[in-house]
Input
Amino acid sequence: MLLIVSCSPGHVHDTLDMAQSRIEDQPDSVLTRLESIKMPSFSSRGLKARYALLYSIALDKNFIDLTTDSIIAPAVRYYEHNGTPDDRFKTLYYLGRINQNAGDNETALECFCKAADLAPDVSDTLALARCYSAQAVLHADFYDYENAIEANRIAADLFLAAGNVNSYANRVLQESFCWWALNETDSMKVCLDKVEAYKTSIKTSTRSAYYSRKINYLKDCR
Output
């Protein structure tokens, strides 16, 4: 049974504060709490925008793929001219995710690039890493390997700075694929050597991807 949160502004603020602090580690419980808030609880555009953004993030982290902007729209409207750089960045990033879910990869990439433009003022390192990672995937899908390489490198550095070694290795492996697609085996080898240094610290699936890339490299070097 869902807990019905009091409609007082104080309780709503407390719930949103809790959601923001726990959304990375407890996205399922955060989603349940957010869904328990009743819409009349929102006393301002800023509160509606904050809820819309947090709810969109919670859905995404629970693998519920939105394909329309109906939920995030209050955040898009409000944070265009208000809020912190992190608010604007995350709104653009998750709007991009929604467009990507809908199959509109060009608009998604535009959103990711606009979000990345805010990078110097954004404090959330993991969110930045995910944004550049999403850029890299779409650049590669469009066969724009040069920009994919750059985005993968930035994402990899950010993941490593955040202590996420497995995601770092994944991004470096994706960079190695781009070099392979460009027939630049020397640069591919550099990437593989970087991953090899973390081979014992990454997940089995990532290690398997490393070996697969290594086999491709060895075949091309015969």
Remarks:
- Confidence is low (pLDDT under 50) at residues 1-7.
- The chain is about 70% helix and 0% strand.
- The radius of gyration is 20 Å.
